[in-house]
Design brief:
The chain is α/β, with parallel strands linked by helices and 216 residues long. The protein has helices spanning 8-20, 24-31, 35-52, 108-118, 160-174, 184-196, 200-211, and strands at residues 62-70, 86-93, 98-102, 124-127, 142-145, 153-154, 157-158. The model has no long low-confidence stretch (mean pLDDT 89).
């Protein structure tokens, strides 16, 4: 990435407003930079985050998996199969981190490829009752499912953790009033990174480390 023309003080403030969840337009007004400069800087921060995320570490233990849909028109179909929406698959280690991936569909073959790649065999995998997860019953995982038509949790049988992540991610993304499809993965990975590093002070420190030598 090319050297930034912004002063170090303004870069530090941009990082702090980014961590706070402010939009580039609001940040530009507060830091006194052009909105295009703020938008470009935020875009570069998301690129650095995406590059820094460790997607190779496998998950083990008690794992929650779920799929969700982002964006698209509000009218028409909703929920699974919603027209114009982006399907995303998520894996969450209870008490640990989350991993997300944009997927073309929610068919068994699509999901199973990701599960076998990301989750250690013999792990306990919690899902909802989507039929695509039936394949887990004869896999190398211990499959536990919750039927949301009957209840949302039964002692340890739930996927509340990954559903909480979806809720946080969608709440964060709504403030941007639409995200270009070609940049959606950067925003998604930003949400993943925020969830896995929930302390705002740590986020600031991590971003400053990423920026050092990359944007300057």
């Amino acid at each position: 990435m090319r050297k930034s023309r912004l002063s170090q003080e303004k870069q530090d403030r941009l990082i702090e407003y980014f961590v706070s969840g402010a939009t580039a337009r609001t940040t530009a007004a507060l830091v006194d930079v052009h909105r295009n400069s703020a938008a470009l800087y935020f875009h570069r921060l998301r690129q650095l985050i995406c590059q820094a995320i460790d997607d190779d570490s496998p998950f083990a233990g008690e794992i929650e998996v779920d799929e969700s849909y982002f964006g698209g028109a509000r009218k028409g179909k909703r929920g699974r199969g919603a027209a114009g929406k982006v399907p995303v698959f998520g894996i969450l280690k209870r008490g640990g981190r989350v991993y997300t991936k944009i997927i073309p569909d929610v068919r068994s073959a699509t999901l199973m490829r990701i599960l076998e790649e990301k989750i250690v065999p013999d792990s306990i995998v919690y899902t909802d009752s989507l039929c695509s997860y039936n394949v887990l019953d004869v896999s190398g995982f211990h499959h536990v499912r919750i039927n949301h038509n009957e209840k949302f949790a039964e002692e340890r049988n739930h996927i509340n953790g990954i559903e909480n992540f979806w809720s946080q991610a969608k709440r964060h993304l709504r403030r941007f009033n639409g995200i270009p499809k070609e940049h959606f993965n950067l925003f998604l990975k930003e949400c993943e990174w925020r969830f896995n590093n929930p302390d705002p002070k740590l986020q600031v420190l991590l971003l400053k480390e990423l920026v050092k030598g990359c944007l300057n």
